[in-house]
Structures are given as C-alpha cells and as structure tokens.
C-alpha cells in the first residue's frame, strides 16, 4: 500500500494556541510523521495568533456557507519547518482574543457548536470529492470532540477513512438537537448509532460511533474508557468497538524538552552532569520567592487546576509540607476554589510554598528543571505529558496509577532499582493519606543522594521520543484505509 496522505485536524497547536497536552501533540506528531515520510497537513482555525505568526499565508480556497449555522470561510496555506498548515479563516468565528474554548469570564463561547462544527465540516470536506483543493488525504485524523464530527460526514457522504483520537473523554461537545440540521448533517444521522446521544447532538459520540478507527493516547486509558468509571456513558460504545480501538502512548518533542539545550534554563544539564541541576533549583527558589534551602526536596506542579488533576488532595495535605520538610511550587490555572486554595496555602507558608496563577511556558520549563519531584495525583490521565517531561528532566514524578501515568512511571522498589526501571513514585490509592505517604517516601529517598541519582538516571535514559508512536499511527492509518475500501 502506498504511504497514506493524512489531514490532521486540531483545535490547538503549540506554540501558537495551547491550553494543554493536545497543543503539544498537534505540533509534535504531524512533524514526526512528516519526518517519517508521510504527506501530512494540519488543519486548524486561523486564530489571531496564527494570523500574526503567518501574515503571508496564502488564500487557497473560498468556501461558501456550508449549512445554516456555518458561515462562509476560506482556507489559507502556510508552512512551519516544512510542515504544511491549512488555516481555516472565518473572522466571525475565530477572530477573538483569549482561550480557544472559553470567554474571558470562563464560560464556553456560546457559538462553539458553529466554531467546531465548521472545523469538523471542513476537515471532512477536504477528504471528499467536493474538496476545493487538488490535494486529497486518504485519512482524516480528528482529535477530541472539536473535530470528531468530521467522521460523521465522511461516514454518511463517503470520502477518506477517518481516525478519531480521544485525548480526554470528559469533554464531549454536546449540543441541542436542532443543531443536527443547522450543521447540515443528514436526517438519517439522527439515530442511537449515529450522532444522537441521549437526545443531544454529541460531537465525540458521533466520532467514536462512526470513525473508521479510534485511538486514545495510552494503552491503559484505552482499557479504562471501556469501563463506566472512566468512559462515562460512552463505555458500552467503546466496548462494542474494542477491536477498532487502539491505545498509542504519546511521545514528547525531545528538542523542545531537552534539559541540555533549553533556552528557558540558566544552567543546562544532562544525565551525566546532574550536579548542574542544583543551580536550577536555586534559581527557581529565588524566582518564586522560596527560601533558598538545599536541605529539603522541592515538589513541583504545572497543571490545569481541575477536578481531573487531583490537586484537591495536595491541598488537603499542604499543611504537612513544612514538617516533612519539603517545599512546593505550583504553576496553574483553572477552578476558582483550587486557585484560591493554593494562594491561601502560599500565604500561610511563606518561603515554603509558592504559587503562580496563569499560563507561563518558560516557567513550566524552569519548574521541570528546578523541582526535585513533580507531583501529578490525577484521578484520570489519558496520557499526561508532564510526567514524561519530568522523567527527561531528572525530576522523578509522583503519580497516581492511572492511564498514561501507569504506563510510564515505575514505582521505585528493590526490584525496580535492581532492573533499572524504577523511575518515580506511585501512590498506593487515590486518597490524600496515600499522597502524603508517597511524599514522605520521596523526602526520605531524596536524602540518599546516590540512590536519588540512580532514580533520576533511570528516567532520563528512557526514550519517549515520537519515533515509536509515529510508527504505530502509521499502522493505524493503513488499517483504516484498508477497512474503508
Ligand atoms: P492536559 O492536556 O490534561 O492539561 P498534559 O500533561 O497532557 O495535560 O499536558 C499539559 C501541558 O500543558 C504541558 O505541556 C504543560 O506543561 C502545559 N501546562 C499546563 N498548565 C500550564 C500552565 N499553567 N503554564 C504553562 N504550561 C502549562
Ligand atoms: C488530554 C489529557 C492528557 C493528554 C493530552 C494529550 O488533555 O488530559 O492526559 O496527555 O490530552 O494527548
């Protein structure tokens, strides 16, 4: 079979628009596939950041209104490091500042159904005979609910094979049923095994039901979402399609996340030059207003502050930190209660706990480098990228055993030290006590500098680059093309 051509459809892409891991993946995976010889193009909205980054993007197609709720738009072509981008330009929908999903007040944009309805519709169109472009993908690869609906048009009208990747099943994109016709979906699609979901139009459900193949971002999460506790009401559908569901672990961009050549760090370091990591800890303590102490470990957090990430557990044990003793640095934004909780903790323990609210890419790198241990007590974690960055930065992660965290973090024990796989700390269960116990274990272990260095090096040696995952996606694309025929 010839190498399939791929359209990668996404609602965010680093460094221009990023709210979480999907942004990183949408930058790194297509680039890795291109290096592996795939003819791949990325479709995403022409948000202001992209218009600014690519002022000379060339109009390559004008699109009429494709349905009552979908205004006219056009496609602009650009390129980043040789990777072709298709920017979907529709100022009425995308030309606004801030977060791609939320208004400044923190609510979903009220026209998200049209914003991502159009993105999905155009992704499908580019895989169909009616496409305005001469280039035609063999596979349309949609990511999360914002593009998943593309699979519905490809299913009902024909065209390329489709792959839908679930990065987070908690976000499903459900809208009023009148949107079915407003988006121009055929009446025949309104079925329990079509786009309908408990009386609503669900973008993600439609994608998972109708895509040629489904994937998610770790083998464990692929199993977990077949279970009601993690897959919510979509678990039965995923069990039904289990033969067509693949778990492919995300990689990391090892050029951007490289402690030996990271422009955000004052002092670069590597597995064989770990002493230099200490300068990064001091610098981080200074930057964040923490006591510059080297007699206690520094725990780090960089995260969306939401229920998923389990930071309420960390707040519950926060007062025990100074006694451990240990310090904590937090960078994050999200739920008001969690933000306030961390601010209060920092106020109570000056010098020991420091918090910065907001999104700060460079500080995220400095925390990865300067912390001793990275904390992710997530309740669920489809893959998780921060534990991978931590492993690469010699900052052993402390995690709950779920999803991609379970697939990548190996608890330190006599056995796993002997076979050189032990690279972090896994909580025994999801309770605050278990978190505290694991933090105690970290503090004790950290005091044994030689042991700690072995753990750091076990993590730093593992290869989390995209090479493996790119090959796995290649198989998946071929399988989808063959199944579509
Ligand atoms: P998720 O996608 O669920 O948020 P991941 O671990 O996959 O979790 O990816 C999160 C990404 O977003 C990482 O690159 C992380 O560094 C980044 N990130 C999250 N919050 C912030 C923040 N406040 N400032 C900077 N980067 C952040
Ligand atoms: C989601 C998940 C995260 C994953 C990321 C990229 O945001 O919450 O676990 O790493 O997508 O796939």
Describe what this molecule looks like in 3D.
It is a single chain. The strands form 3 sheets. A 9-stranded mixed beta sheet has the order 3-4-5-2-1-6-7-11-12, sandwiched between helices. The chain has helices at about 20-35, 50-55, 90-95, 110-125, 145-150, 150-155, 180, 205-210, 220-225, 230, 235-240, 275-290, 310-315, 335-350, 360-370, 385-390, 405-410, 415-420, 430-445, 450-460, 465-485, and strands at about 5-10, 40-45, 60-65, 75-80, 85-90, 140-145, 160-165, 175, 195, 200, 215, 245, 300-305, 325-335, 355, 375, 395-400, 425. The chain is of the alpha/beta class and about 475 residues long. A hairpin with a 2-residue loop joins strand 9 and strand 10 (about 200). The mean pLDDT is about 95. Bound molecules: adenosine-5'-diphosphate (ADP) and alpha-D-glucopyranose. Alpha-D-glucopyranose (GLC) binds near residues 21 and 22.
Which structural traits does this protein have?
485 residues, alpha/beta, six-stranded parallel sheet, binds adenosine-5'-diphosphate, binds alpha-D-glucopyranose
Helix content: 25-40%
Strand order of the largest sheet: 3-4-5-2-1-6-7-11-12
Span between termini? 12 Å
Tally of separate helices: 21
SSE topology sketch:
Blueprint: E1 6-9, H1 21-35, E2 40-45, H2 48-53, E3 58-63, E4 73-80, E5 83-89, H3 91-94, H4 112-125, E6 139-143, H5 145-148, H6 150-157, E7 161-166, E8 174-175, H7 179-182, E9 196-197, E10 200-202, H8 203-210, E11 213-216, H9 219-224, H10 228-231, H11 235-240, E12 245-247, H12 277-288, E13 298-305, H13 311-317, E14 327-334, H14 336-348, E15 353-357, H15 361-370, E16 373-376, H16 386-392, E17 397-399, H17 403-408, H18 414-418, E18 425-426, H19 432-447, H20 449-461, H21 467-484
Parallel strand pairs: 1-2, 1-6, 2-5, 6-7, 7-11, 11-12, 13-14, 13-16, 14-15, 16-17, 17-18
Antiparallel strand pairs: 3-4, 4-5, 8-10, 9-10
The chain binds adenosine-5'-diphosphate and alpha-D-glucopyranose.
